[in-house]
Amino acid sequence: MKKIYLPLTKEIIAGLKAGEELCLSGVFYTARDQAHKRLVEAIKKHKRLPLDLKNEVIYYCGPTPNQKNKIIGSCGPTTASRMDRFTPDLLKAGVRGMIGKGKRSDKVVAAIKKYRCVYFLAPAGLGALLSTKVKSKESIAYPELGPEAIYKLKVRDFPVIVGIDAKGRDIYR
Hints:
Blueprint (H helix, E strand, L loop, with lengths): L1 E4 L4 H5 L6 E10 L2 H12 L12 E3 L27 H6 L4 E4 L5 H10 L2 E4 L5 H5 L2 E8 L8 E15 L9
Parallel strand pairs: 1-2, 2-3, 3-4, 4-5
Antiparallel strand pairs: 2-7, 5-7, 6-7
């Protein structure tokens, strides 16, 4: 499997192809429905965001509480289509990659092509295994949302598949 070191660059994204298996290392951020809603509301109101989205990757994940001596609990992917209504605004704001599971809408595929981004698929049903790839976790924003808060995760060799590449090639189509 090809190793990719985050943050993503235009060159890295341009070299990715739908269906390619990768291991990501570096930092990405978790965010689900409620965090997405708050980020997009702030963008539309021209308010300061709790993190700089430029070139970042968002993992659609709501991690479970960690057990003793563990960095994070189970952290499997959430169904990505739930974030589709927010995705074009976040890509326009600088997000370059997303990690989730499942298909994306035509509108999101068009935005991925327009902004030259990438959608990764994480293996579903393997949240406990994926948690072993997380080397640190830090709460960044919206702690009152519990598992839907935004967390900064540092990962090593986090397995993904390129679901939709920057040219709009989609493994589901």
